[in-house]
Structure to design on (149 residues):
């Protein structure tokens, strides 16, 4: 059995971003991401998901939120994402894919030392996070500045 089997259902669709592009062009009004609100779901269509991911990608690039980091002869771009499972996490991840940015998941269960290590190791400059986690990340930064003094 070969080590590397590559098979694609559709010609030219070999990434998640290309799969989203194809699906959004074929069935733009079909439901893609649903968020439960009370007893019902509010849906984003494939077109809305595609357009939002493209806008996020352009915004991240325009503001230089994921600069190129060179490590061991390889160029990388990193952006942290910290949030409970929700559509915004997925939208940022899809936007990052469009700009060849590696999304780094920062889990709630990580301790301060692990967070510091990941952020320092990747040299990331930006973390997309939910409102309830802003204070936690700010407190980490304040502690780091206090330790540096």
């Amino acid at each position: 059995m070969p080590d590397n089997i590559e098979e694609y259902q559709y010609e030219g669709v070999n990434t998640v971003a290309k799969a989203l592009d194809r699906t959004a062009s074929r069935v733009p009004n079909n439901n893609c991401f649903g968020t439960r609100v009370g007893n019902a779901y509010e849906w984003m269509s494939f077109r809305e998901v595609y357009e939002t991911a493209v806008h996020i990608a352009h915004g991240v690039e325009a503001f230089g939120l994921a600069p190129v980091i060179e490590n061991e002869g390889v160029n990388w771009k990193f952006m942290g994402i910290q949030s409970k499972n929700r559509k915004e996490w997925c939208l940022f991840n899809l936007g990052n894919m469009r700009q060849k940015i590696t999304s780094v998941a920062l889990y709630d269960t990580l301790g301060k030392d692990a967070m510091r290590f990941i952020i320092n190791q990747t040299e990331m400059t930006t973390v997309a996070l939910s409102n309830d986690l802003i204070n936690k990340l700010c407190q980490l930064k304040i502690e780091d500045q206090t330790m540096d003094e």
